[in-house]
Write a structure and sequence with these properties.
Helix content: over 70%
Structural class: mainly alpha
Distance between the termini: 39 Å
Strand content: under 5%
Number of strands: 0
Largest sheet: none
CATH architecture: Up-down Bundle
Number of domains: 1
């Protein structure tokens, strides 16, 4: 990285920090409303920018491009189908949430069920943030910077050491934003970084297509289309990460959990100055989300054309592409916006973690706590969670199926029961708190047993009966050991052998997204059965807030329908 790149990187980063400080300097961060909700003063554009940057970070850009590198455009389902979930949330869920004046989703659960159910839900959210999301954000950001700028060679240390250094550097800077700035500082910095990331992110496929098409973007796209037609098929096969049938089962469960119940996402909307502004912000973000595959999917296919099988790790496809095609003059700016994106997602989750602990759990133990004490406790817990996540992050490199697959499969244990409880809480009035508690605990246990006990046994038994060793066995071998193994068993067609193993593994046990869909139905059934046998005696009546205007935006429904049709048309095209 040259002097100009360093100056542009530092300059843009400091500019974002200054604007965030200047915009929020008059917000009272000592109160719950000021720290957690930005004083309920956020407008639609700020909300949209914050939603996009909370979601779109290095783990999304690096992880999804890594999957598209190996599988193609079918992985865009994670992005395009998110738009439908966001439309549903904006039109149907936000009015219910915001009319009740809640600060957190667990607070809604307390109003509907009881305090203990809220505590269980808060703990599940914090586990998801601390063990899965925060570490993956830090690791993916570190991997991107390490590969793009060849930091091991620049610093003269090993790749593993660079990851540790980068993780802690990003984490410590993020702590200052999230813990000492509050939601408004996070949201304002998100908006600026969102604009920068959209501009910088679009530069990569533009320069990438020019590289493929000898200077022509249209020729580059045509070359990709004709050279790799298999990469432009959205109908995933049985061995793909998203078999086509999963779109109708667990895929929408995962999307609705993330956009409809996830505290780190909804906290941005809860800070809106009105329900209409919140709906506008989420629908605007949904429109941009529909276009995001250009940034998080197309570069992976371009990288496949340029690098083929040269990369030892698919998650390096995007940073390697950036390093190859991006002109040096843009390097510092792109590094700054990617750094901002990593910080954005990291500090957004940290701020939400502080909110959950301070507002939900701390007051459970200290019932007479003042707002100032709750905010202080939340900040302290956020610092503790940041240290935990920074310690875990470097070890994610050993995830066998890629970064993005690790995130989605790990979150399945929490997303299914949480979404089921929130759904029942909204749609019914007689299901008691004990039903929600059983579903939350049983839902997590059933998923863990399914994926980590039953699945390995079924797969192992199927492969053993067919006379094969599983891919997990092969993944643990070095390149030399793998070659020696195939020679030992007299296999010459290695790729065919591996393909047979992949098919057998996929057919031996249902895909985790199918499992999520099935368990969602089971959790719903458990709660409805308990509600039928032991109905709640006191009928739940939702409270109404007077703090903000809760009049819905009059164009929300028609815009939501148009966005949904756009998504469906994309699938018809491919």
């Amino acid at each position: 990285m040259g002097l100009l790149s360093i100056i542009s990187f530092v300059g843009f980063t400091l500019l974002v920090a200054f604007i965030a400080w200047y915009t929020t300097r008059k917000t009272d961060e000592s109160t719950a409303k000021g720290y957690y909700l930005g004083g309920r003063s956020l407008g639609a554009i700020t909300i949209a920018g914050s939603l996009l940057l909370t979601n779109l970070s290095a783990e999304q850009i690096v992880g999804l491009n890594g999957q598209s590198f190996t599988e193609g455009v079918l992985v865009m389902a994670w992005e395009t189908l998110a738009a439908i979930a966001m439309v549903f949330t904006a039109i149907f869920l936000l009015p219910k949430y915001m009319r009740s004046g809640i600060t957190t989703i667990p607070e809604f659960i307390q109003d509907r069920f009881d305090q203990q159910t809220k505590a269980i839900l808060s703990v599940l959210f914090l586990i998801a943030f601390g063990i899965v999301l925060l570490p993956t954000i830090l690791y993916s950001g570190s991997l991107a910077f390490s590969t793009m700028f060849d930091l091991p060679a620049l610093l003269g240390v090993s790749k593993e050491t660079v990851i540790w250094i980068s993780v802690w550097a990003i984490g410590l800077i993020g702590v200052f934003y999230a813990i000492f700035g509050g939601l408004k500082a996070v949201a304002v910095s998100d908006l600026i970084n969102a604009i920068g990331l959209l501009i910088g992110g679009l530069l990569i496929p533009v320069f990438g297509l020019m590289a493929v098409g000898d200077g022509s973007i249209t020729d580059g796209l045509a070359n990709l289309w004709h050279a790799h037609p298999e990469k432009f098929n959205v109908k995933g096969g049985v061995t793909s990460s998203i078999p086509f049938g999963t779109i109708f089962t667990g895929m929408m469960i995962a999307q609705m959990y993330y956009w409809g119940t996830n505290q780190s996402i909804l906290q941005r909307v809860f800070g809106a100055k009105s329900l209409a502004e919140g709906q506008k912000g989420m629908l605007l973000a949904a429109l941009v989300k529909f276009l995001i595959p250009i940034i998080v999917v197309l570069p992976g296919i371009i990288a496949w054309d340029l690098f083929g099988g040269e990369l030892e790790n698919a998650d390096k496809a995007y940073p390697a592409l950036v390093r190859k095609v991006l002109p040096g003059a843009f390097t510092g700016f792109f590094a700054a916006v990617l750094f901002g994106a990593v910080l954005s997602s990291f500090n957004s989750l940290l701020n939400s973690s502080a909110t959950l602990f301070g507002f939900d759990l701390f007051k459970l133990f200290k019932k007479d706590a003042t707002e100032h004490q709750a905010v202080k406790a939340g900040k302290t817990f956020g610092l503790f969670l940041a240290i935990i996540s920074m310690s875990i992050a470097p070890f994610i490199a050993s995830a066998p199926d890629g970064l993005f697959a690790y995130i989605q499969e790990s979150l399945g244990s929490l997303s299914v029961p949480i979404l089921a409880v929130v759904t029942i809480g909204i749609l019914t009035k007689k299901v008691p708190a004990i039903g929600a508690k059983i579903a939350l605990v049983a839902g997590v246990l059933m998923y863990l047993i399914s994926q980590f006990v039953m699945k390995p046994r079924f797969v192992s038994s199927t492969l053993e009966n067919a006379g094969f060793q599983g891919s997990s066995f092969l993944n643990n071998l070095t390149k030399e050991e793998t070659v020696a193994y195939f020679k030992k068993i007299n296999v010459t067609d290695i790729s065919g052998h591996l393909e047979k193993i992949s098919i057998l593994e996929a057919e031996a046990y249902p895909h985790f997204l199918h499992i999520m869909g099935l368990l969602f139905i089971i959790n719903i059934a458990i709660m409805l059965l308990i509600g039928k046998l032991y109905p709640k005696k006191e009928i739940y009546i939702a409270k109404a807030t007077t703090e903000i205007d809760t009049t819905p935006w009059k164009h929300a429904v028609i815009l939501g329908i148009l966005l949904s049709l756009l998504v469906l048309s994309t699938y018809l095209i491919f």
